[in-house]
Write a structure and sequence with these properties.
219 residues, alpha+beta, Alpha-Beta Plaits, Pseudouridine synthase, 5 helices, 13 strands, elongated
Length: 219
């Protein structure tokens, strides 16, 4: 598995760096020498799904995999907000208003196409050389500028208040946690992302990925 690309189905509760470290350890053990392993884009610890890892000499091509479009399935909880946009933050009630399916559809349509999005402060984006989430955890004020992203499609899989499950095809750099927050603001109910799964990166789907357990790695 040296000098190749690996498709991993990341489990929940593990950082992307943790996935890389575990894969590096098992490949190094098998090869009897240190194997270089890198990722081509992170997933939040609570999220699951497709990660593309590069090994050995293929690491030099990591950039060619990092700016690709992605498809996600996500569940948003309406009526509440989270300080991190996900289940790991402090949760607060906002509204008991129950949007209709028509209101949901109208809100989602407003996010179709090229939009401006502000990434979460609890993210791996670097601000003056430091990760935003580290600054936020240290209690420092973090200001991340808005940036353009593209939502190619966003559709409802299921809506049973307070849970809204969607599937969305987005450009690289799109934060689904931010999308949840923005949709919640549009609906005037508040929202945060409770479940997130990346099902595709460009032409590669989750069905091509292996579980860490299949590689002999205990998650």
């Amino acid at each position: 598995m040296n000098d190749t690309v690996l498709f991993i189905d990341k489990p929940a509760g593990m950082t992307s760096f943790g996935v890389v470290a575990r894969v590096r350890r098992i490949l190094t053990q098998r090869a009897g020498k240190k194997v270089k392993v890198g990722h081509t884009g992170t997933l939040d610890p609570f999220a699951t799904g497709l990660m593309i890892l590069v090994t050995g000499k293929e690491c030099k091509n990591a950039g060619s995999y990092s700016k690709l479009d992605k498809i996600y399935e996500a569940t948003f909880r309406l009526g509440q907000v989270s300080t991190t946009g996900d289940p790991e933050g402090e949760i607060s009630d906002v509204s008991e208003n129950r949007p209709t399916e028509e209101e949901i559809d109208t809100a989602l349509r407003s996010f179709s196409g090229e939009i401006l999005q502000r990434p979460p402060i609890f993210s791996a984006i670097k601000i003056n050389g430091q990760r935003a989430y580290k600054l936020a955890r240290d209690g420092k004020e973090v200001e991340i500028p808005e940036r353009k992203v593209t939502i190619y499609s966003i559709t409802v899989i299921d809506y049973t208040y307070p849970e809204l499950k969607i599937r969305t095809h987005v450009s690289s750099g799109t934060y689904i946690r931010s999308l949840a927050v923005d949709i919640g603001e549009t609906l005037k109910t508040g929202a945060y992302c409770t479940d997130l799964r990346r099902t595709a990166i460009s032409k590669w789907g989750i069905d091509e990925a292996v579980q860490l357990s299949e590689m002999g790695i205990n998650s």
